[in-house]
Amino acid sequence: MTLSIRDNQLLFFLLFVRFTQGTQCQNQGRSLASSHRRQLYNIGILATVFVHPGFKKALHNPNASHTGLITAIYYLGTWISYLFLSHPAADLLGRRWAAFLGILVTLVGAAFQAGAGGNAAYTLMIIGRIISGFGLAVVSTSVPLYQSEVAPAKERGRYVVMNHIGLVAGLAWAFCAWTSPEGNYYGWRLSILVQYIPGLIFCIGVPFLPETHADPSSDIVTVELEEIYSSIEAHKSAPESSWTSLFRQRPLFERLWRAALLQFMAQMCGNTAMKYYLPTIFASLGIEHRMTLLISGIESTLKIGCTIIEMLVIDRIGRRTTLIIGCLVMSAALLVNGALPIAYPKNINHTADYVCVVFIFFYTFGYSIGFGPAAWVYGSEIFPTNLRARGLNIAASGGSIGSIVAAQTWPVGIHNIGSKTYFIFMSVNIASAVVGSLYIL
Predict the structure, then answer these.
(1) Contacts with 374 (C-beta within 8 Å, 6 or more apart), sequence order
(2) Is-contact 88 102, C-beta < 8 A?
(3) HSE, side-chain direction, 13 A CA sphere, residue 248
(4) How many other C-beta atoms can be found within 10 angstroms of the C-beta atom of residue 123?
(5) Beta partners for 38?
(6) Three-state secondary structure call for residue 261
């Protein structure tokens, strides 16, 4: 279950994997990289695509409801995949080949999105988003599972957080834009297609990754084996591995609802809106278009540094402490961003606008040391081995539900009640801090 760190090469490759995944999320705007980075590229790219003139023209000037659906429908795909596709793939194919399959499916979805045009443009974009959701759900769970199984137990949190570093690196890369006259037509399409580069590199590298086995002579492995034997003895009284046992056996169900709630709160805290609508948020503060993309890129780059800090401290101070601190910081940042535009409407005070930008950076810090990595670290650790893939995927489906709600709430809320929308997500963070202090162990 544990690999000695000749793992340096292994973990570096997995970091690249998540970079690719990161690229694809924003790329549903633009970038270049591999699996978790690919997922956040998928997120980040969409943020820049939404404000791209070529995209608006190709999709016939979509309104807030249309962009909200384009955002949310991706998470419908992830939700379906988490429940019905991801865990069978991880258990039947193994963690490596499940991620491989997920990347291939994601690339198919990217092709639909990049080819969107004509009268069917909106339909093609929706289909592509759903397909990408199917694939990235498989990647986003199989990679943390793999990492948690190859990492030494005492450093497991650190290596799973490293997974998140790749994710935010992809997001940062995605905030680039080609806005020349040619770019207005080709730019957003190439932004989406660039993810093929890290995706194919990842697929080429997968066969060279080892399975989750270990050097039997290692002292670390000896300790791990003793823990495994103890776990086997503890579960002999309940050897059942059916997914229904996660709901029927109280100890397992308590782990499941905690992990699922954590995933749900991780999206309802406002992170989904920040990822997809960040350039739009900056534009509402009176910032010029190209500057909004630059600041968005800086904000996403900041995530990398903050997540590295989390990687270094999570195993020392614990998951719950970092989670609570992160929730409180995000609550304060959202309060400021909700209150100042009310006090100084229509950008009459540029200082207030700049303060809002600064506190968005504080929000980034809070998320990066809290929910960002903690939701995945917690879910990848608490389930027994025979139910780990099923448990993590069912829990992750809670995050998909939260993303669907947040992605639809944000654009409609901003359109109707303005900056008061921030107070909704601030309330969620305050509630999350309370829940985390009481129930997250």
Answers:
(1) 262, 266, 314, 319, 322, 323, 326
(2) no
(3) 7
(4) 12
(5) 19
(6) helix
Dist CA 441 CA 439 (whole Å): 6
CA 234 to chain centre: 34
- CB of 165 closer than 8 Å to CB of 35: no
CA of 329: how far to CAs of 297, 325, 370, 430, in Å?
21, 6, 9, 10
The tokens describing 285, both together, are 């503060």
Amino acid at 227: E
Give yes or no for residue 176 having a pLDDT over 90. no
Closest by Cα among 55, 201, 198, 41 to 114? 55
The pLDDT tens digits of the residues spanning 385-427 come to: 778 888 888 888 888 898 888 888 888 888 889 899 999 999 9
Query: What number of other Cβ atoms are within 10 A of residue 290's Cβ?
Result: 11
**The residue to which tokens 């509630």 are assigned:** 431
What's the pLDDT at 210? 72
CA distances in angstroms from 246 to 240, 257, 386, 440, listed in the order given: 10, 9, 11, 18
- Helix (DSSP H) and strand (DSSP E) numbers for the chain: 20, 0
CA distance 163 to 161: 5
pLDDT range class, residue 169, cuts 50, 70, 90: low
Amino acid at 379: G
Q: Cα–Cα distance between 111 and 97 in angstroms, integer?
A: 22
74-102 residue pLDDT tens: 889 999 998 888 888 888 888 889 989 99
Phi, psi of 94 (to 5 degrees): 95, 160
DSSP 383: S
pTM for the full predicted model:
0.68
SS3 state at 96: helix
Q: What is the CA radius of gyration of the chain?
A: 21
CA-angle at 23, arms to 355 and 382, nearest 5°: 90
Fill in the amino acid letter for 360: I
pLDDT at 296 over 50: yes
Task: Report how far residue 384's alpha carbon sits from residue 390's, in angstroms, rounded to the nearest whole number.
Answer: 10
